[in-house]
Amino acid sequence: MPESAVPVTRPAARGAAQPLVRLSGLKRHFDVSPPWLARVLEGKPRAVVQAVEGIDIEIAPGETFSLVGESGCGKSTVARLVVGLYPPTAGHIEFDGADMGARRSGSDMSAIRRRMQMIFQDPYASLNPRWRVFDIIAEPIRAFRLASSSDEIRQRVEGLLRQVRLTPADGVKFPHEFSGGQRQRISIARALASRPEFLVCDEPTSALDVSVQAQILNLMMELQRDFGLTYLFISHNLAVVYHISTRVGVMYLGRLVEVAPTDALFRRPRHPYTRMLLDTIPDLEMTGRQRMPVAGEVPSPINPPSGCAFHPRCPFANERCKRERPDLLEAEGTRVACHAVAEGRLPAEERSYAAR
Ligand SMILES: Nc1ncnc2c1ncn2[C@@H]1O[C@H](COP(=O)(O)OP(=O)(O)OP(=O)(O)O)[C@@H](O)[C@H]1O
């Protein structure tokens, strides 16, 4: 299939609705302590990575909620918690009103699991190389008993292949016979095979060429419209996030520092970290203001700084920022965790973000 560049268009923000997914007080810690003997003989201390440190997010049906932030801030851990690949250390995940942590029968759990699927960054690693594409896509249909005959399975797989712009003839091939973009199409077809409502997409285009990225993003947005899908989208690529998202959550060291509708975040970023991240986008329209330089590195999530975790890198930090962790507070339709914003020391700054 020719992979020519196509323009991407962003979906319009939808109105308020009951959340499909609700994360409350979600935490995940990883014990990375040295072995017991090293601790006893060499006096090495225990170490715990605070990968996710209390996240609250509501995702409405049909929206694309994106999580952004530098490497190691906990985005992928949130994605894995949501689909149940990791159990939370604390907090709750609700899907369509059901607490995912509650005890329930295998069939009830399977019914919920069918409704949420995940797409990974590396489509090659997530596809069984020894299976033909047909069987890769048919497997969830069989596992969730979504078809009553082999003829129905075949029709369904062929329909899914067409939906992702592959052909029924591609079903007899193996994953290695496809390009990276085509493999991601196969992953998407497989994810859709169980008829999910919610897709968690962890950097689904970051391993692909730029022109292919645009095609996959457009396909994802088209499928969202056709099937009424809801997305949790993880990316470090702000240009991609700008195009695909309804709302964006900015993460720093396991916490949300800003949550806002996409346009508001890109036109009027409030948190100094969001401003710094946006200023890393190449070709950003800079009319009438100074670029905020990227200063310092992300501190260790094993031993995060006191107060606001961003304070060692923040040009606006004062004594209070070093001492006291700011809460995520409502501010003109967005939520921001920053003392400087709350105290009016950091006025909003209008930007004209011209995505290319
Ligand atoms: N299984 C694990 N065991 C120990 N530490 C982990 C594990 N998974 C993640 N971490 C740590 O948790 C922190 C958050 O990692 P995570 O992968 O969620 O971040 P991220 O924002 O998705 O980064 P990236 O964009 O690089 O994937 C990091 O410090 C990481 O090293």
From TrEMBL:
CDD domains: ABC_NikE_OppD_transporters (cd03257). The keyword Repressor does not apply. It is a peripheral membrane protein. It comes from the Bacteria. GO terms for cellular component: plasma membrane. SMART domains: AAA. One of its GO terms (biological process) is transmembrane transport. This is ATP-binding cassette domain-containing protein. It comes from Vineibacter terrae.
